[in-house]
Specification:
By secondary structure, the protein is mainly alpha-helical. It has helices spanning 2-15, 20-23, 35-47, 65-81, 84-94, 111-114, 118-127, 130-142, 155-162, 175-190, 193-210, 228-242, 252-269, 289-305, 310-325, 347-351, 360-374; strands at residues 276-277, 287-288, 337-338, 355-356. It has 17 helices and four strands. It is globular. α10 (175-190) runs antiparallel to α11. The two termini are 40 Å apart. A two-stranded antiparallel ribbon has the order 1-2. Helix content is 57%, strand content 2%.
């Protein structure tokens, strides 16, 4: 019977023009689904998109973190594909930061605003223009410097600062992309290990404090729900830091353990469509695309770096990418993106969040994943 099922499945694949080899790798894709094609469309959509303000009609007063994360992803995609025209467009988008849009550079008062620094650091990596390095490194340094006078800081944040952590520490899992992306980028741009060491120490604090035995994370200690995008930030942050963390770093083994434990749990909760849900462990919860993009990114990086078993994870990563691509419309906007979400100890609050189209929370991880799929 098992052999018969395999034969029938093979015939179905043959009729659809898809081979067994194609179903088990991260290089052969149906037309329109390759990371090159998808990434190019989504990056072009970003270039044409004005500065966004969380789907509000009014323009933002500062660059928001979804825009920063998408900008960063588009730059990485341009590098992976050697797309000089795209890189030039992204540079043109940034140039007003030094003139007419200087006031839009966020003050370094919280993790969401500070992640903007990852954009000029990536620009420096790709252009070697020291203006970008000065701006991005300054933001990374401020994240660990004593807070400026007048900045409101909670006692627990000051306590974390006194112990050598960032004063942005607040124990929301979102932080573990925002902080680690910035500090890891500063390390990549400068080669100074203090930045990656900071990020690793901070990551271990969050892992030891927040990861549950099943490998997943509550949104915050007082919010006992496995919210998809929150966990997505955590997964992407671990993949980001592990990609650059030196082998001899004393925190590497702990972070790798946390990462692998989480990936194993995600395998169990992946829906038949390839996506993950708004509340990861709730079978009746709606399938959500931004978390799926982040999990796909983390899984693709792990497979390509050799951290994850290819037999187990490559099919899941492929299935996730194809599921994600199916949610992208003709405008290169992805649907079923959870709107911006605060923490709240109320399950229904998460289930009832608006589902939006084209939100940069969802566009960003598509670009990260496309770049990761293309890169060696």
């Amino acid at each position: 019977m098992k052999r018969f099922i395999l034969v029938i499945f093979g015939l179905i694949l043959a009729c659809s023009g898809i081979s067994f080899a194609q179903t088990a790798n991260l290089t052969s894709w149906p037309k329109g689904a390759s990371p090159q094609e998808v990434g190019k469309r989504v990056a072009a959509r970003f270039v044409a998109t004005p500065h966004t303000n969380f789907n509000r009609p009014t323009p933002p007063s500062v660059f928001t973190y979804p825009e920063s994360c998408t900008w960063y992803g588009a730059l990485k995609f341009s590098k992976a594909t050697n797309d000089e025209a795209l890189k030039d467009d992204l540079i043109k988008r940034f140039e007003p930061v030094f003139t007419t849009e200087a006031k839009m550079v966020p003050p370094v008062t919280n993790v969401d605003w500070a992640v903007f620094g990852s954009v000029p650091l990536q620009l420096y990596i790709q252009t070697k223009d020291k203006r970008y390095l000065e701006l991005g490194q300054g933001i990374a340094d401020k994240q660990w410097a004593k807070p400026d006078a007048g900045v409101k800081v909670k006692p627990e944040q000051l306590e974390a600062f006194e112990k050598g952590y960032s004063w942005h520490t607040r124990m929301w899992i979102d932080d573990m992309f925002m902080i680690t992306a910035l500090q890891t980028q500063a390390y990549r741009a400068t080669g100074d290990v203090k930045y990656i060491n900071r990020a690793a120490k901070e990551m271990v604090l969050y892992l030891d404090s927040l990861q549950k035995p099943n490998g997943l994370f509550y949104h915050a200690p007082d919010v006992p729900y496995f919210w998809g995008r929150g966990d997505g930030w955590m997964a992407a942050g671990m993949a980001e830091i592990l990609s650059s963390l030196p082998e001899n770093n004393p925190d590497r083994a702990r972070i790798m353990k946390g990462y692998k434990t989480m990936m194993a749990s995600l395998l169990k909760y992946q829906a038949p469509s390839g996506l993950w849900r708004q509340l990861i462990d709730e079978p009746g919860s709606w399938e959500e695309s931004s978390s799926t993009g982040m999990f796909t990114y983390a899984m693709v990086v792990g497979v390509k770096k050799g951290w994850l078993d290819k037999k187990a994870y490559m099919p899941a990563a492929r299935k996730a990418w194809l599921g994600l691509v199916s949610y992208i419309d003709e405008n290169a906007d992805i649907k079923e993106v959870c709107e911006g979400t605060n923490k709240k100890n109320d399950k229904q609050y998460y289930l009832d969040r608006k589902r939006v189209v084209g939100d940069l929370h969802g566009q960003a991880p598509i670009l990260w994943t496309a770049a990761a799929l293309i890169s060696n």
